[in-house]
Amino acid sequence: MLAVDKDTFQPEVLEAQGFVLVDFWSDGCEPCKALMPDVEELAAKYEGKVKFVKLNTTAARRLAISQKVLGLPTISLYKDGEKIEEVTKDDATRGNIEAMIQKHVG
After folding, report:
1. Could you give the 3-state DSSP secondary structure of residue 98?
2. What confidence tens digit (pLDDT) does each residue in 53-96 have?
3. In this structure, how many other beta carbons lie within 10 angstroms of the beta carbon of residue 67?
4. Whether 32 is catalytic
5. Pairwise CA distance, residues 69 & 6, whole Å
6. Where are the domains of the chain?
7. Best exposed site among 26, 29, 32, 62 by fewest CB in 10 Å?
8. Considering 20, 21, 29, 50, which one is annotated as catalytic?
9. Residue 106 scores a pLDDT above 90
10. Which of 32, 42, 43, 87 is catalytic?
11. Which residues are 74's β-sheet partners?
12. Is 0.70 topped by the overall pTM?
């Protein structure tokens, strides 16, 4: 799973072709850290179909706000650089993340 920052988000996510799933998290977000192993397992499962990246919003607050990330954890699915769906806060569960992927990617 690729870690991106405010400098690499644009080329890795917004300029990428196909599906990119972004895990927005922060150092102080315990639910984010608890969810990370599930997201990494999904990254392995969907390798080749979806690119998985994670962004620590602690050092990229303006970027997070520009992507309309208002609460954490937020897992967003992008297609060809456009956000198409996201799950956030209590809805950010492994089941809901996988359902979102399957809905769009199959």
Report:
1. helix
2. 999 999 999 999 999 998 999 999 999 999 999 999 999 999 99
3. 21
4. yes
5. 14
6. 2-104
7. 62
8. 29
9. no
10. 32
11. 24, 88
12. yes
Catalytic status, residue 23: no
Give the model's pLDDT for residue 95: 98
Distance CA(60)–CA(24), nearest Å, equals 10
The answer to whether 21 touches 51, Cβ cutoff 8 Å, is yes
Question: Rounded to an integer, what distance in angstroms lies between the CA atom of residue 54 and that of residue 75?
Answer: 9
Mean predicted confidence (pLDDT) in 21-36 = 97
What secondary structure does DSSP assign to 7-67, as a single string? Answer: TTHIIIIIT-SSEEEEEEE-TT-HHHHHHHHHHHHHHHHTTTTEEEEEEEGGG-HHHHHHT
Cα separation, 42 vs 10, whole angstroms: 23
Neighbours of 13 (CB within 10 A): 21
- Kind plus residue range of the DSSP H or E element containing 95: helix 94-104
pLDDT value at position 89?
Answer: 97
